[in-house]
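re: that chain from earlier
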Amino acid sequence: MSLQAQTTAGVQRLADSLLEAGHYTQAAALYERLRWFAPVDSMANSWIVKESKCLISSQQSDKAIPLLRRMPFGYDTLHREMAVLLLQAYFDTRDFSTVTRMGKKLAAIDTLYKKRYLTYACMAWMELGREDSAVQTVVHLMDSGQASRVKMAYSEFTRKLKKPRKAYRLSMIPGLGQLYAHDGRNAVNAFLLNGGIITLVATQTVKSPPLGILLFLQLVPRYYAGNMRNAAKSAVYYNRKQSEKLRSVLEREIW
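^ sequence. v structure.
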């Protein structure tokens, strides 16, 4: 064995041991050196995959993407693993549109890893607020029991959704919009705060009309409008919690 081959093998063993021990930054640096030292080595693609794993594990997914994109897609385990890592890297960098597009494309040409590709696409659809697409993406991959549970969870999700605009309109009566969005604490706060302001303005208007008008112009638009915006936010927050419940069901059934 040549000196170069011995050196390469020694550095690779050290990098592999660092990867197994969870020292991702140091391992990534060694894999990078191997790629530069022996770019045409038969292990070069393996080093790219391992370096990318280290970068993703050390929250540097943005650096893993250009590395992984150098490798053409193939049907062996290494290239399939590369495709999964690339999906994960795009997901970590919040490029959800790319994940959905790429996941569907990969699933169409590689049935063996189809479930893994579509799992990432499903989670990306959830992040984009497209729960319907998320369910449609993976439900056909499940057995009847899993599919039934997911469909039931999605039906419950759509039934419970609240409309932010409706909450906004209902809050013309302070607290009613928050109550519609299942935000009881803020409903009480909005009712008491706006009720107190209206009472104060009315009392001062009787005693001193100019002061009452001034208080009305200063307080009512600010707090009344704030009450309406708060109601819409309560509906958005409530919907987000329902989305998280659906997501947990999807993750449990998929994985």
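Residues 171 and 177 are 4 Å apart (CA to CA).
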